Every structure is written in structure tokens, then in C-alpha cells.
């Protein structure tokens, strides 16, 4: 018998993304192996043919090119079957017009997970919210298959896709330039330098000996041009 822990346990930031094989609307996938070398956002939604999910899919599909340009592929999942997924995506394309978006074709794979095998592996079922629908989970997986960020929303709350894009850019900027990014950071904003590792270095920082702007020894920023970030992170 399956335990509550098996249903609700979830991978954590820094873990290897749990492996699975699945059928999707774009053919079979082997995750994360098929995505080696790319960033990928694996996200779940509660159910096909539901309005919040429809608004999310239209938004994500409309932004897909932007994510691909940032080296990031998209993979969706719900606890529905393949034919339901196909019918829903056809309905979105043929019938739904929303916020200026219409004829939206969802080209990224949508996983069929009727057995909940993948949803359980990723802790996408939160039984006190709903025991048969996945919550709105978002896993950001890096090119080595490591989970780098996780966001969870309840059933009633549609996600902010500009924020998901900001996360993908910020994670890559942090890796490329060895910095951290402060609250609400966007490319072009100053970035955070890691804390001083010794009393000597703390003193040097406060004496202005290093090329950074220190408000106090532990809070130092430096400039990082938007063009430099985007040149590094975006494909030509
Ligand atoms: C929706 O996507 O509209 C939705 C799904 C499950 C519960 C509530 C809303």
C-alpha cells in the first residue's frame, strides 16, 4: 500500500530531478535525460478543460519562443489522459480567445499522468488541497538535470509567467557571473556580491578597495549591464 509520505514527498532544490518515462502530446519523453544541455521548466496543472489552466496554457504557449531563446524548454503535466489533452489543446486553438491571444497552438509536450506516477514523484499531489488533481507546481531544472528552483501555487491561483521567465534568466545570470540577484531583480539592475569571508576582506570592502558598492561589509552590489547578461543568457 502506498504511504502518505510517498504521495506527498517532493524533491528539493539541489536534488537530481527524479527520472521518468512518459507519453506526451509530442511523443514519448525520458525525463530529464532528453533535456541534457537545456534548462527545462516542468510544471503541473490541476486538470484539462478548466479555465485557470486554459489561461495559463495560452500564456505559456504564447511565450514559448521567448523561453526557448533563453535555452529553456517547457514540459506540462496533468492527471488526465492523452486524448483528453489532445481534445483540450484543440479546443484552446479553435475556440478560446483571451486577452488578445487566439489560435494559440500549444507546441510543448503535455504529459499524460493518469496513474499519477510522475505527479507523486514530484510531490505535485497535495492531498489536503485535492487528492486527485495536481497543484500548480513549477520545477526549474538545469542542463545537468539538477532542480534549481521550485514554486508551488494552489488550484485557484494562476501563475505569473513573467516571474517564471525572470527566474530562468536570474538563475543563468547567477551561474554565469558568480553573483546573487536581489529582490525584484531584472537584467540591468545591480547584482549582489557574496558575503565577505574574512575580517580582512570585510575591512577592504568598507575601505572601498574592491570594485563594488558596499552599504555595509555584508551588503555589497556591483553593476552588471543588461546587454552583458542578455548576451550571455540568450541565444543569438
Ligand atoms: C482551473 O484551472 O480553472 C481550476 C482547476 C481546478 C480547480 C479550480 C480551478
Automatic annotation (TrEMBL):
GO molecular function terms listed in the Swiss-Prot or TrEMBL record: thioredoxin peroxidase activity
Organism: Lutibacter maritimus
Swiss-Prot/TrEMBL keywords: Antioxidant, Cytoplasm, Disulfide bond, Oxidoreductase, Peroxidase, Redox-active center
Pfam families referenced in this protein's UniProt entry, alphabetically: 1-cysPrx_C (PF10417), AhpC-TSA (PF00578)
Protein name as annotated: Peroxiredoxin
GO terms under biological process: cell redox homeostasis; cellular response to stress; hydrogen peroxide catabolic process; response to oxidative stress
Catalysed conversion reaction: a hydroperoxide + [thioredoxin]-dithiol = an alcohol + [thioredoxin]-disulfide + H2O
PANTHER family found in the cross-reference section: THIOREDOXIN PEROXIDASE (PTHR10681), THIOREDOXIN-DEPENDENT PEROXIDE REDUCTASE, MITOCHONDRIAL (PTHR10681:SF128)
Primary role: Thiol-specific peroxidase that catalyzes the reduction of hydrogen peroxide and organic hydroperoxides to water and alcohols, respectively. Plays a role in cell protection against oxidative stress by detoxifying peroxides.
Oxidoreductase recorded as keyword: yes
Coiled coil: none
Amino acid at each position: 500500500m502506498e504511504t502518505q509520505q510517498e504521495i506527498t514527498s517532493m524533491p528539493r532544490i539541489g536534488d537530481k530531478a527524479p527520472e521518468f518515462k512518459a507519453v506526451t502530446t509530442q511523443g514519448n519523453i525520458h525525463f530529464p535525460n532528453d533535456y541534457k544541455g537545456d534548462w527545462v521548466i516542468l510544471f503541473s496543472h490541476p486538470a484539462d478543460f478548466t479555465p485557470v489552466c486554459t489561461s495559463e496554457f495560452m500564456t505559456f504557449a504564447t511565450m514559448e519562443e521567448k523561453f526557448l531563446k533563453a535555452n529553456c524548454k517547457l514540459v506540462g503535466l496533468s492527471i488526465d489522459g492523452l486524448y483528453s489533452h489532445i481534445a483540450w489543446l484543440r479546443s484552446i486553438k479553435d475556440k478560446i480567445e483571451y486577452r488578445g491571444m487566439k489560435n494559440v497552438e500549444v507546441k510543448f509536450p503535455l504529459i499524460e499522468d493518469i496513474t499519477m506516477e510522475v505527479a507523486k514523484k514530484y510531490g505535485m499531489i497535495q492531498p489536503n488541497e485535492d487528492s486527485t488533481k495536481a497543484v500548480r507546481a513549477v520545477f526549474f531544472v538545469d542542463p545537468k538535470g539538477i532542480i534549481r528552483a521550485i514554486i508551488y501555487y494552489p488550484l485557484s491561483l494562476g501563475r505569473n509567467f513573467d516571474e517564471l521567465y525572470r527566474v530562468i534568466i536570474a538563475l543563468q545570470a547567477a551561474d554565469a557571473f558568480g553573483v546573487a540577484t536581489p529582490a525584484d531583480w531584472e537584467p540591468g539592475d545591480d547584482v549582489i556580491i557574496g558575503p565577505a569571508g574574512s575580517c580582512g576582506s570585510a575591512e577592504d570592502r568598507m575601505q572601498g578597495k574592491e570594485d563594488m558598492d558596499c552599504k555595509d561589509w555584508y551588503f555589497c552590489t556591483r553593476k552588471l549591464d543588461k546587454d552583458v547578461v542578455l548576451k550571455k543568457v540568450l541565444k543569438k
